[in-house]
Amino acid sequence: MPLATVSEELIQESGTGNIQDALADLPSVGQNISRTSSNFSTTGNGVATVNLRNLGSARTLVLVNGRRFVAGLPGTSIVDLNTIPTDLIKRIDVVTGGASAVYGSEAISGVVNFILDDRFEGFRFRGQGSITDKGDAGRQYVSGTFGHSFADGRGHVTLYGQYDRDEGLRSRNRKFSATDIPNRSSFSAQGLFSLDELNPNRPEFSPGANAFTYDASNNLKQYQSANIDGYNRNADRYLGVPVERYMGNLLADYEITDGVTAYFEGSFVKSKSRSSLEPQAVADTDLVYADGTPFAGIPLTNPFIPTAILARINALNSDADPTNNVGNTLFFRRRSNDIFNRSNRNDRETWRVVAGLRGDIGSKLNWDVYYTHGETKDYTRSETILGPNYINALNAVQGPNGPVCSINVDANPNNNDPNCVPINIFGFNSVDPRAAAYVTNNGQLSTYNAKIKQDVFSASISGDLFDLPGGALGVAGGFEYRRESSTEDFDEATNLGLTLGNFLSDTRGKYNVKEGFIEVNAPIISERPGFHYLGLEGAARYADYSTVGGVWSWKVGGTYAPTPDIKFRAAYAEATRAPNISELFSAQSETFPAVIDPCDQRAGEGDTGAITIPRSSLPAACLAIPAIASASNTANGFVYSTAQIQNINGFLGGNPNLKQETAKTLTIGGVFTPTFLRNFSLTVDYYRIKVQDAIGIIGQQTSLDECLTGSGEAIFCDNIVRDATGRVTTVNAINLNTGSFTVEGIDTQVRYRTSLGGNASLDLNVYWNHLLAQSQVSYPGGPKQDELGQLDCYSCGRLGSGFKDKVTASATLKYDTFSLNWRTNYYSSVVDDLTKTTPISTGSFWYHDAQLRTSLGEKSAFDFYIGVNNVFDKKPPIFGDTNVVTFPGAQTSANTYDLYGRMFYAGVDVKF
Asked: Which of 81, 502, 798, 894 sits at 20 to 30 Å (Cα–Cα) from 253?
């Protein structure tokens, strides 16, 4: 199988403190979950994952010293790379392609194996600091390693400690992300109040005489537009979330007797991170009483309603035109700046131990038995608003000594809290601290507690059985038992959907699997004319899951080298991935997808602008809905505001009837190492991976499109909920073995080292991925979505940016004790024309990094280095905030392009 190795030297040249940053340069690595893409995650802010071939982190198996590592994301097998000790890594082996027969489930797209240095001798200290050329986004890193042999070399121990802190980066600190584009939010800190929500002839919260807000001096005024009177959410958001890590590792082994060695690995990691979101947006339509009764709006008896608004209401209700009547309530939108901060704070702890014995049987066989236990705990908390309390506080009346909650003067059974404090939401900073305390239940936190446990027992034997004409027949086999469990527990108010945030349910699940495996490597011929080497290999694994039953994975391959200079290889594998705990057992949870209703006559382009779709062009299924048919006949048409689009929710959930995914992988390639050109190698490999019965959902946009412009089948239409006005309020989804993914491409790797005379040398490394195909079929029988050359999509389920070409090139010039490294990353142009009428093209992107290093002292014991990432300060491509390819607060694809700009770093690496 093709193998890409990230050496310790390459890691050092990247100047990284988090190993994810070094892996991200590999062209085979797709879009990852990282500190730049997780600010808006409900949990797990700041985690770091690896995603091979854009098939998702859940289909990439992460190992440490060849053994499984406990997951970092509850309900999944996804490892948080924040738990990997950066300076203890000796190398990283990346095997791409279906490797389940050798390594087990989750290895559909490949394996990333972190090999730690368990034979380190002496002491090493590294310290590094980083900062951008704008003086922000600082990072600090220190690590220490100690290794020592004892008992005449029979034993060895390695101790490692690491601390690092990434200070994060605010959206407001970069020009491209400082403000919402194209429109600010109409949910403003001073409030927006409308008389038109129930009037079908006038769009709600539209500028004019029936919409009110406040100016900067807190004077009541008519609402003009979101850009004038709205809120800049990006002022509060993070481009990169802060992450702080504490880490300790212990590696030890001792030769008990000749041929039997005991070994131990232990690790503990504590990480802290936090998100930063704009304060909670609250509208009358968000509020329901504790018994589920919808809130009808602020009653006109509320004494905080300004006189001018009451006068306008009375005038409309009393004139001769009945279509002007606005009822007896006031509708509002307001951001909760003077009430609470809804941003998350995350604390995660991971610990893991491995204890084992290994030894020899004779001179040809080796055995290994080990047990590993790992646990991850995740505690997330944030402040929250309780919806029923907010309603109680809005149901205020004038009492003898000032405003009071109506519980004091009426018998409304939904307003029966004697602790209620009336709330004034009219204007800037108008909320009394006592009212803020009441609606947040005295600052009660919304909490999330998660725990993951993993237990693995493994026994294996490997070695040579007998000789064939080409060499010894190698065989490996063994047995493995694994048990995984995961729990996710939200606070009760979140479970009940009373916090105005996402409705989230608890998840509890577990499974176990018993596996047997065998591998064979058969050298058929060697050192013969025309057959420098010919060999065959095969592997098979049977796994019995407590959830999906028995599954097989297998692989066959061969290698042929006609001469020492050139080698051809091919492998075919059928791999599997069993559904994880979240996919099987997660309860219904709420999300807010960025979807566009095909019935929207402005195609979801925001609060302003002309109707772009005439009534005659609307799908027949849209006009079959009476409310849409009626509205589309008016001058204002059937349209959505940006806020209405952003408030469309949906519920996702698990499915215990899922079965395993399967993947068919073909790899064909060759290695050219000419004897006439020393230290040169060229590797070219073609790969094709097709995942079938892929676990996923029918995309929420797909449900809308297929229901209204496609087949109209119930499998799509049953997912959609509309309100009385015909507008979409909810688009649901559930996990299914729903479709297939295909990726196909060519990997090329060139390495060359040459002497330049004297003490000078030049090292060149080039990795190039040329993507031939990237596509998915979202549901059985559905159309193929071609994603080759397409930009990643934040919320519409694409595999990732389908760069036709990704290249990483590195050149290191060494002279005496100095070395200069220059690295270049190239991303070809991608376009978004799957979701936009007018395609968005990024153009190609080049990023350049440089590092200068010098070594001093005996045996180069002291290394000093300085570096610059993104040397030319390349800015990311910019899209509108409402575009589906945009990550909130970033105005771009935040897991694809650099958001920080030019980054300087300097460090010292001391060994003795």
From this structure: 81
Three-state DSSP state, 193: strand
Question: Could you identify the residue written with the tokens 């440490």?
Answer: 64
Kind and range of the H or E element at 9? helix 8-14
- The tokens describing 92, both together, are 């990283």
Q: How far apart are CA 558 and CA 669, in angstroms?
A: 11
pLDDT score for 734: 82
Kind plus residue range of the DSSP H or E element containing 629: helix 626-631
Q: What is the spatial distance between Cα 716 and Cα 701, in angstroms, rounded to a whole number? A: 10
Give me the DSSP letters along 590-604: EE------TT-TTTT
Query: How confident is the model at residue 582, as a pLDDT?
Result: 93
Its pTM stands at 0.89
Regions of the chain with pLDDT less than 50: 408-411, 604-608
| Apex 893 CA angle, 881 and 696, nearest 5 | 100
Rounded Cα distance between 134 and 121, Å, is 40
Q: Are 503 and 66 in contact (CB under 8 A)?
A: no
Which uninterrupted H or E stretch holds 461?
strand 445-468
Which residue, among 852, 864, 790, 851, has the nearest Cα to 824 in the 3D structure? Answer: 851
Lookup: tokens for 142: 């220190």
Q: Which residues lie closer than 8 Å to 129 by C-beta, 6 or more apart? A: 138, 139, 140, 141, 905, 906, 907
Tell me the C-alpha to C-alpha distance, in Å, between residue 584 and each of 360, 381, 482, 578, 618.
Answer: 42, 26, 17, 10, 39
How confident is the model at residue 195, as a pLDDT? Answer: 86
CB atoms closer than 10 angstroms to residue 131: 16
CA atoms within 13 A on the CB side of 637: 22
Tokens of 39: 């600010």
Inter-residue contact 486 to 75 (CB < 8 Å): yes
CB 49 within 8 A of CB 29: no
Helix (H, G, I), strand (E, B) or coil at 394: helix
DSSP 8-state secondary structure symbol assigned to residue 173 = G
Give the type of residue at 661. Answer: E
Residue 496 is predicted with a pLDDT of 84
Residue of 651, 845, 671, 652 lying closest to 749 (CA atoms): 671
The per-residue b/e assignment along 607-629, b for 16 or more CB within 10 angstroms, e otherwise, is beeebebebeebbebbbebebbb
Place of tokens 């504590």: 270
- Give me the amino acid identity at 51: N
105 CB-contact burial (10 Å; exposed 0-12 / middle 13-18 / buried 19+) = buried
- Between 2.40.170.20, 1.10.287.70, 3.40.50.11310, 3.20.130.10, what CATH number should domain 3-169+241-275+345-381+449-579+659-697+733-911 receive? 2.40.170.20
CB 822 within 8 A of CB 811: yes
CB 669 within 8 A of CB 685: yes
pLDDT at residue number 408: 46
Rounded to an integer, what distance in angstroms lies between the CA atom of residue 699 and that of residue 368?
45
pLDDT at 9: 92
Q: Exposed (0-12), middle (13-18) or buried (19+): which is 153, by Cβ within 10 Å?
A: exposed
Whether the CB-CB separation of 162 and 143 falls below 8 Å is answered with yes
How far lies 764's CA from each of 255, 752, 756, 821, 840, in Å? Answer: 41, 5, 13, 10, 35
Alpha-carbon gap, residue 597 to 599, rounded angstroms:
5
SS3 for 72-119 is: CCCCCCCCCHHHCCHHHEEEEEEEECCCHHHHCCCCCCEEEEEEECCC
Residue ranges of domains in the chain? 3-169+241-275+345-381+449-579+659-697+733-911, 190-230+281-335+387-439, 584-657+707-730
What local confidence, expressed as pLDDT, does residue 792 receive? 87
pLDDT at residue 197, rounded to an integer: 62
Q: Would you say the C-alpha torsion 541, 546, 550, 553 has a positive or negative sign?
A: negative
Q: For residues 111 and 122, what is the distance between their CA atoms, to the nearest angstrom?
A: 31
